[in-house]
């Protein structure tokens, strides 16, 4: 029991009180539920892997996006983390595929280019499999540095490289826009 | 005293307690201060007017922006309210002039095109005084409708009409971007 509580406490957002409650719940639940939970946890690590093409977390290789015949395989959206794919899928307006970096450049935290998963992206582009690479890293300092690094890396391959727009968020009043965002919104203005 | 308290209470954010405190403060202050405050209030309404060229609130006509020889008078940024000029000036990256609409289209609130101050903008553009009109209304429903209306209004004049970028705000993680903003950020992507 103490061992389970200790293990549960390692999960984010679970304190010792909460871990105790969870452990007692598992104790009281029937054997099948406990077995199913244990199985699910074991399988997560055993079966999930990274897609060899795009680094997305998947249980089949290539992942559903890379294997999809209805998606535009020549349009690649580069994101920082696997969770960002959900953000882009929610828009229901993107029909290309993805590439997951698993991080951003952050010299202060010792994260250099060698820590980003870029090898298979460069390979895809160099093979001529890609028409456009959309850099959808966040418009943070790290995200911008990463986008700049990738743009430089892809330049010799002569592929079209684009960056998502920075600007005033939809539904928001420009009165609440900070200087940098407003400046980028003006700079990024488009013909109507 | 009661009359002053009542008048002060009409100001936004001033409740009855606060109005009383302000009134007593004025009562205790010396005559000069009270006179100066009364004068400042009277002058505000008496001297301030709208710039005949751009509708900005000003005490000289034309306003400082329209009269400036160092600003690009052929680049006009259209905003909803005079306060929006401050938002754009804070970026320190804009060197054109402005046009203030004093509102946005809002059919639900009975605000139609006839309520927006667009006459002098159309006149400026029609005279050939303008190279580009930047529509910097907010990316809200009303702001977008207003931008669409202005773009249609200006089309016959064959002036360049642009819209500020909607997208992920600077410094923010794309994980927190809502669907519409993310969708617009992808749509508005630019060549790097």
Give a count of the beta strands of chain A, DSSP E runs of length 2 or more. 7
List segments of chain A where confidence is low: pLDDT < 50 over at least 5 consecutive residues.
Answer: none
Tell me the series of helices and strands of chain A, N- to C-terminal.
HHHEEHEHEHEHEHE
The CATH topology of the largest domain in chain A corresponds to: Dna Topoisomerase Vi A Subunit, Chain: A, domain 2
Q: Tell me which oligomeric state these chains represent.
A: homodimer
Estimated helix fraction of chain A: 40-55%
Global geometry of chain A:
globular
Describe the fold and architecture.
Chains A, B: Belongs to the RecR family. Chains A, B: Keywords: DNA damage, DNA recombination, DNA repair, Metal-binding, Zinc, Zinc-finger. Chains A, B: This is Recombination protein RecR. The structure is a homodimer of 192-residue chains. Chain A has 192 residues and is α/β, with parallel strands linked by helices. Chain A has two domains: 2-47, RecR Domain 1 (Helicase, Ruva Protein, domain 3), CATH 1.10.8.420; 67-163, Dna Topoisomerase Vi A Subunit, Chain: A, domain 2. Chain A is built from eight helices and seven strands; from the N terminus they run H-H-H-E-E-H-E-H-E-H-E-H-E-H-E. Chain A has helices at residues 2-9, 16-28, 31-47, 64-67, 82-89, 119-126, 141-154, 179-187; strands at residues 49-50, 57-58, 72-79, 96-100, 132-135, 160-163, 190-191. The first copy, chain A, has a four-stranded parallel β-sheet. In chain A, strand 3, helix 5 and strand 4 (96-100) form a beta-alpha-beta unit. In chain A, helix 1 (2-9) packs across helix 2 (16-28). Chain A is globular and about 65 Å long. The first copy, chain A, starts with a helix and ends with a strand. Chains A and B meet through helix 5, helix 7, strand 6, helix 8 and strand 7 of A and helix 5, helix 7, strand 6, helix 8 and strand 7 of B.
């Amino acid at each position: 029991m103490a061992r389970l509580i200790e293990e549960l406490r390692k999960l984010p957002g679970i304190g010792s009180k909460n871990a105790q409650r969870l452990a007692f719940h598992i104790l009281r639940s029937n054997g099948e539920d406990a077995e199913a939970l244990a199985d699910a946890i074991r399988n997560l690590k055993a079966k999930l892997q990274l897609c060899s093409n795009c680094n997305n977390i998947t249980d089949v290789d290539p992942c559903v996006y890379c294997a999809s015949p209805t998606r535009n395989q020549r349009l690649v959206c580069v994101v920082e983390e696997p969770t960002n794919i959900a953000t882009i899928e929610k828009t229901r307006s993107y029909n290309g595929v993805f590439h997951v970096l698993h991080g951003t450049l952050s010299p202060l935290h010792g994260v250099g280019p060698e820590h980003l998963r870029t090898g298979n992206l460069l390979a895809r582009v160099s093979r001529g499999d890609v028409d456009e690479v959309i850099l959808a890293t966040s418009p943070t300092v790290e995200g911008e540095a990463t986008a700049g690094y990738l743009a430089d890396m892809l330049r010799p391959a002569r592929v079209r490289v684009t960056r998502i727009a920075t600007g005033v968020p939809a539904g928001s009043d420009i009165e609440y826009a900070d200087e940098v965002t407003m400046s980028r919104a003006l700079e990024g203005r488009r013909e109507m």
